[in-house]
Every structure is written in structure tokens, then in C-alpha cells.
Amino acid sequence: MTELTTTTPDGLHITVRMPDNHAWVRESLEKACAAEARRQIEHAPTPDPAYSVPRAADHLDLHPETLRDYMRLPTTHPRRMHYVAGESSRGDRILLSQLHDWQRRNRTDAAPPPAAVPAPRIRGRIPRSQ
After folding, report:
1. How confident is the model over 20-29, as pLDDT tens digits?
2. Does residue 17 fall inside a structural domain?
3. Which of 14, 51, 101, 117 has its CA 20 to 30 A from that of 128?
């Protein structure tokens, strides 16, 4: 037997007993459990994994030394990669949120500028004006 209990706004407690093999009871319990699981996941803190410099560079499709150059820029520079300093440079870690922030700040979705048309080259002698 499954008991479904609720309390009305007036404070009245209602309990209904139903057999476990009833389809409506099973569906209601599954929906209630799924809704509660969603609510708990939405309100739980999200993890922010930390990556080593080579792994973060691999995610960004950069060479690790290029990424380290971005990490050495002044703190106010828009292309600076913020990171968590370790005991040595091998221990430096970049948080996933910092990777996403860096990508958002350095997005290059704009169309490339048109190529400059080279000036025509004149062959031979330059005519003299008379």
C-alpha cells in the first residue's frame, strides 16, 4: 500500500491509501520524485573544475606557452587569462568559469576585415610629363 498525504491551506491533513500496483500512483510518484530531484539540482552549487595549463590550452586549441603568455599579461588587460596560482608554474590551475569568461571576452565572431587591394604596379619606365 502507498499512502499519499497532503495538507490543505486550512490545515486539514488528507491521507489516501492506494495499492502499489496502481498505474496512477506509480506515475505520480515518479513525477514527484523527478520534480524534487530537479529542484535540488537547480539549487545545488555547480562544480567549477580546475584544469592544468596544458589541458586548458588543449581545450582552447592553443599552445601551452601561448596560454602562459596570456596569463602573464597585466591584470587589467582584456586578454589576460586569470588563474589560480600554485606553488610553482606547474601547479597553476585555470577554473572552467575562467575559461568561459576568457572566451566570452575574446570572442572573435566578427567577419574578418576585407583584404586590402594592392596598388597596381607599373612596369617599365615612368613617362615624363611634357
Report:
1. 677 777 787 7
2. yes
3. 117
